[in-house]
Structure formats: C-alpha cells, structure tokens
Design a protein that fits this description.
By secondary structure, the protein is of the alpha+beta class. It is built from five helices and five strands; from the N terminus they run ββαβββαααα.
C-alpha cells in the first residue's frame, strides 16, 4: 500500500505491505536505525518514537506496536530528527550526555523520546512521577538513577 507521511519534518512516500509495522518502515525502508527493537512485544520501549496525527499533539508511541498504515498523513519524529538543524543536541539529549544517563545506549533513543513526551505532558513532574512515567522503558544497564537525573536536568534546562 502507498503511504504518505512526514518523518523528521520531511515528506515521505512509501509503498509497503499492509502488515508492515511502523518500526519496520522506519528501520528497513527509511534506514532510520536509531529506532531500536528490543522485544517486539510493546514492553521495552526501545522502539519509541513521537507521532503527531490529525493536527493533535505529539505523543510517544511504541513503533513495534502500530502498523505503518496507521501513520497515513501523520508526522513521525525519530531520534534522528530531534537535534537542531546545525547539529546542536536537543536539551534532552544534552542532559542524557551530561548526567551519564546511558551506558550501552540501546534503550537511549526510546528513553530520550519518552522523556521528551513526559516533560511535554508533565512539565513539573516530581522525581517519583518521572520514575513512574518512564516505567514503559526498560534499561538493562544504568539502574535508572542517572536517567532520572538526566530528565530532571532537562526539566530545568527547558523550564
Ligand atoms: Fe517495541 Fe520493545 S521493541 S516495545
Ligand atoms: Fe544499556 Fe539502557 S543504557 S540498555
């Protein structure tokens, strides 16, 4: 089927089988491999991207859990699309770097995008709320402490 959407601000046309998952469209058809696959069962959050559809607000979704066909006309933002045009990191990326919010980096694209959504929805989130709201994203390395610190640092930078 023929799909038209925007990915990272650019119009994209793709011809994909109807059962193509959004994560497959991103990784296999558009070569946007910053979106990771950790489980394929909507548990780990490594595949998280931001989606804006029907002129609504941008929200984080697990791209292994939706069909690409559902993205007709939507705007999808992946980890490749959040830095400024001159390469300056998004404040959330900078905070993860500064606060050592990553080790192997496998969960990081999903964590960063979920954290952007978290602060957009809950700009005043407490530490406990940050921990609770990120529970859909699993990290096998960090113990989460520095991830929470990174989100708090970004919270101050973006206030
Ligand atoms: Fe999508 Fe794990 S790969 S939630
Ligand atoms: Fe390795 Fe999170 S940094 S899984």
């Amino acid at each position: 089927m023929q799909l038209q959407l925007k990915v990272n601000g650019k119009p994209v046309t793709a011809d994909v089988p109807p059962n193509t998952l959004l994560v497959q469209l991103l990784r296999e058809h558009l070569q946007l491999t910053g979106t990771h696959v950790g489980c394929d069962t909507a548990q780990c959050g490594a595949c998280t991207v931001l989606v804006q559809s029907d002129g609504g607000e941008s929200r984080a979704i697990k791209s292994c859990n939706v069909l690409a066909a559902q993205m007709q006309g939507a705007e999808v933002t992946t980890i490749e699309g959040i830095a400024a045009a001159d390469g300056t990191m998004h404040p959330m990326q900078a905070a993860f770097k500064d606060a050592h919010g990553l080790q192997c980096g496998f969960c990081t694209p999903g964590m960063v995008l979920s954290s952007i959504d978290l602060l957009a929805q809950h700009p005043q989130a407490s530490e406990a709320e940050i921990r609770e709201l990120l529970e859909g994203n699993i990290c096998r390395c960090t113990g989460y402490q520095n991830i929470v610190k990174a989100v708090q640092q970004a919270q101050q930078a973006m206030a």
